[in-house]
Amino acid sequence: MTEYLLILISTVLVNNFVLVKFLGLCPFMGVSRKLETATGMALATTFVLTLSSICSYLVNTYLLKPFELEYLSTIAFILVIAAVVQFTEMVVQKTSPLLYQVLGIFLPLITTNCAVLGVALLNVQQDFGFIESTLYGFGAAVGFSLVLILFAAMRERIAAADVPASFQGPAIAMITAGLMSMAFMGFAGLVKG
Amino acid sequence: MMNLHTPSSPHFHANNSISQVMFTVIAALSPGIAVYIYFFGSGLLIQMLLGILTAITCETLILLARKKPVWPFISDGSAVLTAILLALSIPPSSPWWIIVLGTSFAIVFVKHLYGGLGYNIFNPAMAGYAMLIISFPKEITGWFNIQANSTSLSLSEYLGLIFTESKSSDTISQATPLDHFKTQIGLEQPASTIFTDTNLYSGLGAYGFEWIGLAFALGGVWLVYKKIMSWHIPLSLLISLVLISLVFYAWDNNNYASPLFHLFSGATLLGAFFIATDPVSACSTLRGKIIYGSCIGVLIFIIRNWGGYPDAIAFAVLIMNMCAPTIDYYTRPGAQTP
Q1: Residues A67-83: tens digit of each pLDDT
Q2: What pLDDT is recorded for position B13?
Q3: Hey, what long-range contacts does A119-125 have (CB within 8 A, 24 or more apart)?
Q4: Predicted pLDDT at B310
Q5: Selection from B281, B328, B227, B318 nearest residue B118 by Cα
Q6: pLDDT value of position A144
Q7: Is the bond preceding B10 in cis, omega lying within 30 degrees of 0?
Q8: For residue A140, what pLDDT is reported?
């Protein structure tokens, strides 16, 4: 039980995918202008990440390993992720057309979110079982969502600030991301390894 | 008919321009600074002077580069306050470039790139400190050892240390009490022997720090009384820190320090009254302030006990600075709860 808790704390805070491992930076920068879209993106990514880490685990254990096809894992995972994203897109379109419009191009772009592929590959690398893989994917997604939403709220405040002309927009966002990453160093050491 | 009564003169004016507030805060810090100098010697004065000079230089250069009026912004005192807070956080014997680097980072990157006073997301002094402790852990955590030297260093000794790094820092300094406690717990020493083994600690907390903390608290209470700041953040911070440390202390007093130790060591009281309350980077709604303060208290405890940087105030404050806009968004009056 503590082991599962540690996986969660480790992925959400200590080894946060965005601020410590620097994965998934494109949506982090791209969708964080408004709090509403950021929240939508966070939910969609959480869903995709958890589901895709489950699916890639199943594919890896029951398809790639028995046939000794591990060298195909990258391609296989990309395929799995693309399918899961397509599935999510259909679900969002049916359940919330508004969110579908707001997210627009960013929804299919989850496919290219390197955090998603990163989680699938790291699961294999660390030899995680089914529950560990699921939790690892879920934790990574929660960590991603947390910093994305916090970052979006900060950017809304920065948008109203008197930022020097040459630092407006992405420049100050990058500096903010750097400072956030620095603040997250405070969690270093909470979980060993 | 209703009789609308117009009050006659004299109309009292509330004297609360920014510079007035800033210099009141600096005045409230002075008892703490005086006690600090009494225990650790005049090194702090040199650090403060270096910090203030750097802060004013950086601020002037940036304002000139941005073609803004220099004097009104310099004279508001906020840069001076940032420099003083940073000087209070680092060891008084650290080399001169530490405070210069930290202050210029705080003023240029954390304050002015966001547009200057009133716009910064992060607390400049604490971001400067975090940058320093990540980059130069050895210089920042080596605290001056009172016992080994029996008296505090003289001014000339401090000048030698700060500008020429005359003695190697190992001979005069040692880990901060919080750092020492964390290391000893890691070596599976029971808490009771850690406190009696060295004379780093005293009755309430760490030697010297208890009186410094009390003096800062005195200044802080005066500020609350003068209505310069509200009581919500300091009180909720201290209460949550005491409660959580009390729970763990009652559960296992061999591995966890008492609430009093947490209250009176490190920068707890300075942080609660002067750092967490920075009106720009903290929450601004009432409910938000209470959430903000109590989360800092919990984070301080978590990072002190399980984190890699036992002097935890800076990181706890920075992490909550990060959350403040979101907390404000969801606690603003009239917000629907999601």
Answers
A1: 988 888 899 999 999 99
A2: 58
A3: A119/A17, A119/A49, A119/A52, A119/A53, A120/A52, A120/A53, A120/A56, A120/A77, A120/A80, A120/A81, A121/A73, A121/A74, A121/A77, A123/A53, A123/A56, A123/A57, A123/A60, A124/A56, A124/A60, A124/A70, A124/A73
A4: 80
A5: B281
A6: 94
A7: yes
A8: 94
- The whole-angstrom separation of Cα B287 and Cα B291 is 6
Residue B86 contacts by C-beta under 8 Å, 6 or more apart in sequence?
A: B51, B99, B102, B103, B106, B125, B128, B129
The sign of the torsion formed by the CA atoms of B235, B240, B245, B247 equals positive
Q: Give how far A103 is from chain B: nearest CA, Å.
A: 19
Write down the pLDDT at residue A148.
94
Out of B116, B131, B322, name the one closest to residue A180 (CB). B322
Read off the tokens for B27.
């005045």
Looking at residues A7-35, what average pLDDT do you find?
A: 88
Radius of gyration from C-alpha coordinates of chain B: 21
Nearest Cα to B55, choosing from B92, B86, B28? Answer: B86
* ipTM confidence score: 0.88
Q: Positive or negative, the Cα torsion across A143, A148, A153, A159?
A: positive
Scan residues 48-107 of A and list those with Cβ closer than 8 Å to B. Answer: none
**pLDDT score recorded for residue B164:** 74
Q: Considering CB atoms only, which of A172, A175, A190 is closest to B307?
A: A190
Instruction: Provide the whole-model pTM.
Output: 0.88
The total number of residues shown for chain B amounts to 338
A39 CA: distance to closest CA in chain B (Å): 11
In three-state secondary structure terms, A1 is coil
**CA–CA separation, A186 and B314 (whole Å):** 8
| Helices of type H across chain A | 2-9, 25-30, 35-59, 73-95, 97-103, 106-109, 114-125, 130-159, 170-184
Distance between A32 CA and the closest CA of chain B, angstroms? 13
Length in residues, chain A: 193
Q: Which helix (H) or strand (E) holds A61?
A: none
Q: Are B15 and B227 in contact (CB under 8 A)?
A: no
3-class SS of residue A33:
coil
**DSSP classification of residue B206:** B
Chain B nearest C-alpha distance from A57 (Å): 32
d(CA A80, CA A76) in angstroms, rounded, equals 6
Task: Give residue ranges of B with CB < 8 Å to any A CB.
Answer: 66, 109-110, 112-116, 119, 121-122, 127, 130-131, 134, 299, 302-303, 306-309, 312, 314-316, 318-319, 321-323, 325-326, 328-329
Q: Which residue has the tokens 């000139």?
A: B64
On chain B, the residues whose CB falls within 8 A of the CB of A167 are 113
CA distance B142 to B171: 10
Q: Give the closest of A153, A183, A190 to B319, CB-based.
A: A183
Residues of chain B under the 70 pLDDT cut:
1-16, 142-153, 165-175, 188, 191-207, 335-338
